[in-house]
Amino acid sequence: MTHKSTFNRTKIAAVGGVAALAAQLLTLTGVARRLKMKPNDASALILLNAELALTLANLLFMVGVQATSDRDICQRVAVGLHYLHLAVCCWLFTNSLHIYLSLRSTCYKPRVLLYCLFSWLLPIPVIMGSLGGRGYETRFYCWMSARRGMLISFMLPVSALILGNTVLTVWGVRGGLRGAVGAGGVEEGARRSLRVTAVVQPAFAVLWFLGVLALENASSLLLSLLFVTTNALLNWFIFGWWLRGEPSDEEEEDEEEEEIFEEVCRVLLKDCDATAAWRREAELQMDPICTISS
């Protein structure tokens, strides 16, 4: 591989990483604003954790994926990337589970602490297995090795999470569930969030695999370009659609105002009907008197 191709690939990776990072920071800002208005919003907390893991993974990839001069540091970078990517997948699954339970039961109360324990701790046993089997590449780049242990440390856990996420999405989107989300608009927003997560999780798995392929085939500018483009598009998709997955506080307030307005109109119409009926009855009572007088 020539020095020019290496330089071009580095520039492509830098531009793609910065584009993805911009979308990630905007998403984090939007979630922080939502939590400021509604601190107990479990969906926003889940999105915050997922986006935080995604942002840290992107930063670590940009800074350390080529740190092959020190084998120990390179392996730590690879372990960190593996952990953060699995954590993102776990948080995406947790989001679907949370929305499904909200749609299913009116008595559902989010268990945010359990969600955090599940999503941040579940990747650790998988990583321990990868360390035992030496499933990381440290000679040419600092990430997972496509030739050693990737099936167990990547394909199996991520495929299981994607399958579970798909099942929850199908159950939630098909309808027939009435739950704690209440109003129809809010319920539809929850189902929209399920659909978005169902798209993001397999797309993120494909992105992860493309990253490994791009590093394994370092001479291919096409694979590098495909990886960074997919990375940027996925993060901008999350910013543009996942934040819209559930109605904001303003939308909920608008729905409440509409309900109040409709209730007031119904009361006023009842009063108008009662007044009109009273007038008709009074006129009927006055007719005999008018006849006698004439």
UniProtKB/TrEMBL annotation:
Bilayer topology: Multi-pass membrane protein
Which cell locations does it reside in?
A: Membrane
Q: Report the domain of life of the source organism.
A: Eukaryota
A single GO BP annotation from the record? cell surface receptor signaling pathway
Q: In what residue span(s) does the G-protein coupled receptors family 2 profile domain sit?
A: 9-235
Pfam families tied to this protein: 7tm_2
Its transmembrane ranges are: 12-32, 44-63, 83-100, 112-131, 151-173, 194-215, 221-243
GO cellular component terms, A-Z: plasma membrane
The keyword Glycoprotein is annotated on this UniProt entry = yes
Main localisation: membrane
Keywords for this protein: Glycoprotein, Membrane, Transmembrane, Transmembrane helix
Report whether Iron-sulfur shows up as a keyword of the record: no
Task: Give the molecular function GO annotations.
Answer: G protein-coupled receptor activity
Name of the molecule in the record: G-protein coupled receptors family 2 profile 2 domain-containing protein
**Taxonomy of the source species:** Eukaryota, Metazoa, Ecdysozoa, Arthropoda, Hexapoda
